[in-house]
Design goal:
Layout lengths: L4 E11 L4 E12 L4 E5 L6 H8 L8 E10 L2 E2 L5 H7 L4 E4 L3 H4 L6 H13 L3 H14 L5 H4 L9 H13 L5 E5 L7 H18 L2 E6 L2 H4 L5 E6 L2 E7 H6 L4 H8 L50 E4 L2 E3 L19 H5 L3 E4 L2 E4 L7
Amino acid sequence: MVSLLEVKNLKTAFFTFEGVVRAVDGVSYEVEEGETLGLVGESGCGKSVSALSLMRLIPDPPGKITDGEVLFEGEDILKIDMDDMRRIRGAKMSMVFQEPMTSLNPVLTLEKQLSETLQLHKGMSREESRQESVNLLGRVGIPDPERRVRQYPHQFSGGMRQRVMIAMALSCNPKLIIADEPTTALDVTIQAQILELMKSLTTEFGVALIVITHNLGVVARYADRMNIMYAGKIVERGSAREIYSNPRHPYTVGLLNSVPRLDLPRRAKLDPIEGQPPDLVNVPPGCSFRDRCRWAIDKCATDEPPLVEWTDGHLTACWRSDVLGPEALEFMRGSQELADEGDVQVTAGQVEFGNQGTES
């Protein structure tokens, strides 16, 4: 069976005065129809650049997709001309950008911005597109949509603007939505509402969803599978449940240790990842995470670990995968059984396993 989206050895670089920044360096993964995929990593690891590469929105110059394939419904969209790509973008593939205030045109009403997409991709008349715009705003939970569709972006709160962006992404019934940090700058209660909204709508319409975030807690409840990115590469991938309960890369362990646990009320502090990400202009040989890794050995400084399968569907790029797992997680406190008692849950960006959480 052909996946909805297949990314093969994708490489994107930026050619600067300081040198070549290899922002995305050989990324490969698949997305199935109706699936939710989490793309996780800290700022600067290449998450957003990889998403913009899929949409062919990399500014050229200085950026350029230098290698790889992006097969959407079996067609390599990196090889089609830009006119064909514009017909796909918005109609079959949509993106919810990180900051809705800069994504929405401040001098146009919501009706104008929503209608433009509907008229372009679906051939609606002005009146049809206006009514559909009202319906879309109502569907994403904006009250009094008949009145508010005539308002401007500055008249909406951050959470409401993000709902508008979701409405725009859904307007043409796409098959894939990419959400780039959709909860940035929103308070924790609004974050949960936005994520619940996106999950329910994508389930209702059967839309595949890629959620890009730096916070593992954000995608704990919503992702079917996860890709962990570091320094432009995927260092671990697998089902969300497998990665949360049995991480096999030190970076994943560090991310999990830095997320608050609801079932550990007496924990005084989080365990941060020490050090800084490498300079992508001069990435050191060997494992790019070795200088921040407490399990590093001499081999890590010379040989780059390949992404290999640890168990069925669970891949990791680490020479020390055998010494990691649940026992490496201070986050898990050695409690493998806890992850087996119930589904991973998230409340206000915090991770909770099973029914062991505490009331807030």
